[in-house]
C-alpha cells in the first residue's frame, strides 16, 4: 500500500515534547472567548474583557487538575500556557482582573494640534477612517502613540504639547520637517500609497524619483525607529502593541529587535496589492520581512491577506500556509479583520437637537430635489473625477432629472504638500466648473463641491437626508463613509452605490449597487437605477446593510484583533513547547572530547549544503554542494582515528562522490541503499526482493507533470524517483505537486508497495522500506566489521534534515532510552550477493549510473546489529545527540535552524578537538 509521508510528524517520547494532553485548539479558544465577551457585554456587572480571560484561565487550570497523573512535562507546559494566557489577558499576579493596556501606534494621532502660543495648544479631532474606527474602541486601557501633524522644533512647545496630549491619553512622536517631507510626503504618500492602490510607482520625472527613492526609504526607516523608541519608553510588560498602516511597516521589526517578548500586531488599512505589484518596489523584501516580525498581521479582506501571503511566498520564497507565513519554524499569523464603525454613535447623533436642526435646514434647502452624496478625502484613489463624469453622463442621458437632482461632493483636503494631490484638486475643480456651466441655471447648479471637512453633526445630518450615496473609489482599503451612510439611513432607506474595488464591497455588497468606477456608463446607469428604485427594494437592500453595520462594529473589530493577537502568542508558546530544544553545542563538544570511539552521522541536503541563492521565488539552478566553510574542518574531523563520519543522504552516488571524494568518510547514498566505505568501492545494501514494478507507472506520471510544469525535472534513482520543482514558479509548483500527490494517492499505483514522500519542493516515490531508518543497522554492521572495531562506540551525533518518519527512525535506532528490540523491529539484515538484474520487476539502471553500477557489489552478510550492537554500542544517554535541521516537528532530541548553524557547530567541534 502507498504510504504517505509529509513534513509533519509528532514529537517523540525522548525529546520530551509529546503528550496527548487535550489543549483546546485555537478555534475552540477563540470561540469560547467570543461567547464570553458577548455574554459579559450583555451582563451589566461584568463589562470588562478581563472577566473573559479569567474564565479561560480557569478552564486551563481545570484541565490541569483533570490530568494530574500526567508527567511533570505536562505540568510545566500547562503552567507556561496558563501564565502566558494570564499575561496575555492582563491578569494581575494576585488574580485581580484589570483592563489590558493597548498601545495603539499610528502615524497620525486621533487629534491634530494647533499652536496657540509658545506653550499653549488646541487639539482637534483628525479626519480619516483610521481615526474614526479607533475612536470606537473602548474595551481597552488604550494609549495612542503617533505624530500630531505639526512640526514642534522647540523644547517648550514639545513639553506643552506632550502635557496637553497626555490628557487625551496620547503620546506624541516628534518628527522634524525634513523627516516628514521624506518619510510622510515622500515614501508613504508618494510611493507606498499609490502602489498599494494599484496606481504604480511614480512615472513622471522618473530619474528624480529614482534618485530620491533611497533617501526617502532611509527616512522611512528612521521615522519607524523614532516611533519604536517612543513605544519602548512607554511599554510595560503585558501590554499589547498594535501598529497601524503602511506608514509603520518597519515598526514590528524595530520593536521585536528591542524586546522579542513584546506582543506585536500590525494592521494594514489600505489594500495589499497583488504580489506582481508589490514586487516592483525596490525595498519589497525588507518591508515584508519587517512586517513578518509581528505576531499577527491583519487586513480588511481575505483578498489583501492572500496577496500578502503570496508576496511572502513569491518574493521571499517563504512557506505560506492557510494560517500565515512560516519562516524557519516561526509562524506569523495572517488573517482578515474587516473594520467597522461605532454605529451607535451615529444612530444616537440623529436624535440630537443640533443634528435635527441641520437636517431641517438641508431638507428646506434641497426641497424638491433628490440628494446624491459623495464624502471623500480629495485623493486620487477615491475616483472623484470618475464619479463626476458618470454624473455628467447621467444628466446627459436623463434631461428630465436636470432640476430634480443635486450631487453634494464633500472633498476633504488631504496631503496637500504632495504634488499629485495638488494636481488632483485643480483637475476636479475644472470638471465641476465645466459640468455646472453646462447644466446649471441662474438659480441652481447640479454639483455642490466643497473643498473642506464637516464636523460630525453636520456630516450625520447630510448622511440622513441623502437619497443616494455614491462611493466610486478606484481602490479603497475599506471605506467607512459607506458604513456611516448606512448607519444614518434607517428612516430614509436610501441607496448606496458602491465601488467593487472598495473593501466595503465585500461586506455591504448584498445591499449596495456594486459598480466598476472605471466604467462611466455603468455608474451612470446605476445612478438612474438608484434614483428610480421602488421603496420595497430600497428597504430590503437597506436592511441587509444596516444589520451588518450595527453588528460589525469598530469595537468588535478591535476586540477580535486583540484577542487573536493574545491567542497567537499563546499558540506560539504551545508550538515552542512542542519543538525540541536547540542542540546544546557546548555539551555536545565536551562529550565529544571525552569519548573514545565516536560516530558522526550527517545528512547532506539541507544539513551540510551551501545556501542556494534565489532568483525571486526560485532557487538558482545549481548542483548541491557542500558548504565551502566546512571543507577543512570536515576533512580533519574525518581523519581523526577516534571518529567515524558517515554522510547518509537521499542523493545518488555521483553527487556524494563529487562532493566528498577527498575525505576519509563513509558515504551512504539513496537513503542508505548504497554504501561506500572511506575511499572504497560502492556496495549495495538494497534488500533483494525490492518490488520495482511501480516504476514505469510513476515515470509516466512524472513525465506528464514535468511537461506541464516549466523548470521542473525528475531524477531516476535505483530505488526511487524524485520530481523536483525547486526551479519552477513556487505557487504553480505547489499546485502541481498537490495534483500529482492526489493522483499518486488514488491512481494506478495506489496499491503498490511504495512510499510517497512530500519534500518542501519535491515529490519522491520510493520502494517501501527504502529509508534511512531501515538502512542504518546494515551500515552500522558494515562499519563495525570493516573497521574491526574493538572499542565500543561511546558517542553518537546524528544530524539531518530528514523528511519522513521512517527516515527519522534513525534517531530512535541509537536512542539509549528506547528498548532496542522495538527500534530494529521489522528491519532485515542484508542478504548475500544477488545480481540486481535478477530482481523481477526492477527497473533498468540508468545510463549515467551504469558505470558506477559495474562496480557495485552486494554487501556481505554481517551479524545482525541486534547481536553485535550491545558490544559495539556503549552509549550513555548523555553521549547521544540526535538533531533535526530546519524542522520543528521531529523525533530528534534537539534542533538546529539551518545548515549555517550545523557548519558553525562542526567548526567549533573541529577547533576544540585540535586544541
Ligand atoms: O492621515 P492622512 O494621511 O490624512 O490620511 C487619512 C487616513 O487615510 C487612510 O485610511 C484608510 O483607513 C480606513 C479605515 O481602515 C479605510 O476605511 C480606508 O479605506 C483607508 O484608506 C489611511 O490608511 C490612514 O492611515 C490615514 O490616516
Ligand atoms: O468632513 C469630513 C469628511 C469625512 N470624515 C470622516 O473621514 C472618514 C473617512 O474614512 P474612509 O474609510 O471612508 O476613508 P479614508 O479617508 O480613511 O481613506 C470617515 O470616518 C468620515 O466620517 C470627517 O471626519 N469629516
From TrEMBL:
Keywords: Glycosyltransferase, Transferase. It holds the Pfam family Trehalose_PPase. GO terms for biological process: trehalose biosynthetic process. Residues 41-51, 834-847 have a biased composition (Polar residues). One of its GO terms (molecular function) is alpha,alpha-trehalose-phosphate synthase (UDP-forming) activity. Residues 1-26, 32-51, 832-857 are annotated as: Disordered. Its EC number is 2.4.1.15. Gene3D superfamilies: Glycogen Phosphorylase B, HAD superfamily/HAD-like, Trehalose-6-phosphate phosphatase related protein, domain 2. It comes from the Eukaryota. In the N-terminal section; belongs to the glycosyltransferase 20 family. This is alpha,alpha-trehalose-phosphate synthase (UDP-forming). It comes from Glycine max (Soybean). The gene is LOC100820010.
Amino acid at each position: 500500500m502507498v504510504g504517505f509521508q509529509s513534513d509533519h510528524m509528532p514529537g517523540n517520547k525522548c525529546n520530551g515534547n509529546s503528550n496527548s494532553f487535550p489543549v483546546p485548539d485555537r478555534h475552540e479558544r477563540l470561540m469560547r472567548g467570543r461567547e464570553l465577551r458577548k455574554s459579559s457585554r450583555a451582563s451589566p456587572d461584568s463589562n470588562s474583557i478581563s472577566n473573559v480571560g479569567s474564565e479561560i484561565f480557569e478552564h486551563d487550570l481545570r484541565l490541569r487538575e483533570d490530568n494530574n497523573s500526567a508527567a511533570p512535562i505536562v505540568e510545566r507546559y500547562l503552567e507556561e500556557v496558563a501564565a502566558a494566557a494570564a499575561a496575555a489577558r492582563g491578569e494581575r499576579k494576585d488574580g485581580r482582573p484589570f483592563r489590558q493596556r493597548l498601545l495603539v501606534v499610528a502615524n497620525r494621532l486621533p487629534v491634530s494640534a494647533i499652536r496657540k502660543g509658545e506653550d499653549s495648544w488646541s487639539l482637534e479631532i483628525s479626519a480619516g477612517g483610521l481615526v474614526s474606527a479607533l475612536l470606537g474602541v473602548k474595551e481597552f486601557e488604550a494609549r495612542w502613540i503617533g505624530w500630531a501633524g505639526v512640526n514642534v522644533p522647540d523644547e517648550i512647545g514639545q513639553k506643552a504639547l506632550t502635557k496637553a496630549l497626555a490628557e487625551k491619553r496620547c503620546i506624541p512622536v516628534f518628527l522634524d520637517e525634513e523627516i516628514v517631507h521624506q518619510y510622510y510626503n515622500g515614501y508613504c504618500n508618494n510611493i507606498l500609497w499609490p502602489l498599494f492602490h494599484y496606481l504604480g510607482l511614480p512615472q513622471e520625472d522618473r530619474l528624480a524619483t529614482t534618485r530620491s527613492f533611497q533617501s526617502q526609504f532611509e527616512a522611512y526607516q528612521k521615522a519607524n525607529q523614532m516611533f519604536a523608541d517612543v513605544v519602548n519608553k512607554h511599554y510595560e510588560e503585558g501590554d499589547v502593541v498594535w501598529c497601524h498602516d503602511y506608514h509603520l511597516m518597519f515598526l514590528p521589526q524595530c520593536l521585536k529587535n528591542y524586546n522579542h517578548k513584546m506582543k506585536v500586531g500590525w494592521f494594514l488599512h489600505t489594500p495589499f496589492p497583488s504580489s506582481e505589484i508589490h514586487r516592483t518596489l525596490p525595498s519589497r523584501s525588507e518591508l515584508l520581512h519587517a512586517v513578518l516580525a509581528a505576531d499577527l498581521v491583519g487586513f480588511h479582506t481575505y483578498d489583501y491577506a492572500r496577496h500578502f501571503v503570496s508576496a511572502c511566498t513569491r518574493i521571499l520564497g517563504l512557506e505560506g500556509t492557510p494560517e500565515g507565513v512560516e519562516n524557519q519554524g516561526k509562524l506569523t499569523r495572517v488573517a482578515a479583520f474587516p473594520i467597522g464603525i461605532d454605529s451607535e454613535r451615529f444612530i444616537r447623533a440623529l436624535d440630537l437637537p443640533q443634528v435635527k436642526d441641520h437636517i431641517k435646514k438641508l431638507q428646506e434647502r434641497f426641497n424638491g430635489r433628490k440628494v446624491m452624496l459623495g464624502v471623500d478625502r480629495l485623493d486620487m484613489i477615491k475616483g472623484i473625477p470618475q464619479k463626476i463624469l458618470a454624473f455628467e453622463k447621467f444628466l446627459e442621458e436623463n434631461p428630465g432629472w436636470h432640476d430634480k437632482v443635486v450631487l453634494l461632493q464633500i472633498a476633504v483636503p488631504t496631503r496637500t504638500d504632495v504634488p499629485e494631490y495638488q494636481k488632483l484638486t485643480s483637475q476636479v475643480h475644472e470638471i465641476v466648473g465645466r459640468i455646472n456651466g453646462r447644466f446649471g441655471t441662474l438659480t441652481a447648479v447640479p454639483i455642490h463641491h466643497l473643498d473642506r471637512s464637516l464636523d460630525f453633526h453636520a456630516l450625520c445630518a447630510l448622511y440622513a437626508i441623502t437619497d443616494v450615496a455614491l462611493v466610486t473609489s478606484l481602490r479603497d482599503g475599506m471605506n467607512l463613509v459607506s458604513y456611516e451612510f448606512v448607519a444614518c439611513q434607517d428612516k430614509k432607506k436610501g441607496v448606496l452605490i458602491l465601488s467593487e474595488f472598495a473593501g466595503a464591497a465585500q461586506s455591504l455588497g448584498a445591499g449596495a449597487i456594486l459598480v466598476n468606477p472605471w466604467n462611466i456608463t455603468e455608474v451612470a446607469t446605476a445612478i438612474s437605477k438608484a434614483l428610480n428604485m421602488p421603496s420595497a427594494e430600497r428597504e430590503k437592500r437597506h436592511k441587509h446593510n444596516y444589520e451588518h453595520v450595527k453588528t460589525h462594529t469598530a469595537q468588535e473589530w478591535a476586540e477580535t484583533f486583540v484577542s487573536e493577537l493574545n491567542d497567537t502568542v499563546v499558540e506560539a508558546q504551545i508550538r515552542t513547547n512542542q519543538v525540541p530544544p536547540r542542540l546544546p553545542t557546548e555539551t555536545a563538544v565536551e562529550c565529544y572530547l571525552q569519548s573514545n570511539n565516536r560516530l558522526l552521522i550527517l545528512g547532506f541536503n539541507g544539513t551540510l549544503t551551501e545556501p542556494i541563492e534565489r532568483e525571486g521565488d526560485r532557487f538558482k539552478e545549481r548542483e548541491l554542494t557542500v558548504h565551502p566553510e566546512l571543507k577543512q574542518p570536515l576533512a580533519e574531523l574525518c581523519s581523526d582515528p577516534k571518529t567515524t563520519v558517515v554522510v547518509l543522504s537521499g542523493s545518488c552516488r555521483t553527487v556524494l562522490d563529487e562532493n566528498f571524494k577527498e575525505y576519509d568518510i563513509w558515504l551512504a547514498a539513496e537513503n542508505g541503499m548504497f554504501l561506500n566505505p572511506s575511499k572504497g568501492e560502492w556496495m549495495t545494501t538494497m534488500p533483494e526482493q525490492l518490488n520495482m514494478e511501480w516504476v514505469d507507472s510513476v515515470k509516466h506520471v512524472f513525465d506528464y507533470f514535468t511537461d506541464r510544469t516549466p523548470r521542473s525535472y525528475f531524477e531516476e534513482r535505483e530505488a526511487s524517483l524524485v520530481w523536483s520543482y525547486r526551479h519552477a514558479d513556487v505557487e504553480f509548483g505547489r499546485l502541481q505537486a498537490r495534483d500529482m500527490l492526489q493522483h499518486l494517492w488514488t491512481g494506478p499505483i495506489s496499491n503498490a508497495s511504495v512510499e510517497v514522500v512530500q519534500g518542501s519542493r519535491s515529490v519522491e516515490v520510493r520502494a517501501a522500506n527504502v529509508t534511512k531508518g531501515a538502512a542504518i543497522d546494515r551500515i552500522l554492521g558494515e562499519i563495525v566489521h570493516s573497521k574491526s572495531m574493538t572499542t565500543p562506540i561511546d558517542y553518537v551525533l546524528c544530524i539531518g534534515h530528514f523528511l519522513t518518519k521512517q527516515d527519522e527512525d534513525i534517531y530512535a535506532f541509537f536512542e539509549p532510552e528506547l528498548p532496542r528490540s522495538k527500534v530494529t523491529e521489522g528491519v532485515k539484515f542484508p542478504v548475500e550477493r544477488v545480481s540486481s538484474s535478477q530482481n523481477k520487476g526492477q527497473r533498468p539502471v540508468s545510463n549515467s549510473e551504469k558505470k558506477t553500477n559495474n562496480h557495485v557489489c552486494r554487501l556481505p552478510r554481517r551479524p545482525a546489529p541486534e547481536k553485535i550492537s550491545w558490544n559495539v554500542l556503549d552509549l550513555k544517554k548523555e553521549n547521544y545527540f540526535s538533531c533535526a535541521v530546519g524542522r520543528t516537528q521531529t523525533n530528534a532530541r534537539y534542533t538546529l535552524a539551518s545548515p549555517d548553524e550545523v557548519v558553525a557547530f562542526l567548526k567549533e567541534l573541529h577547533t576544540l578537538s585540535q586544541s
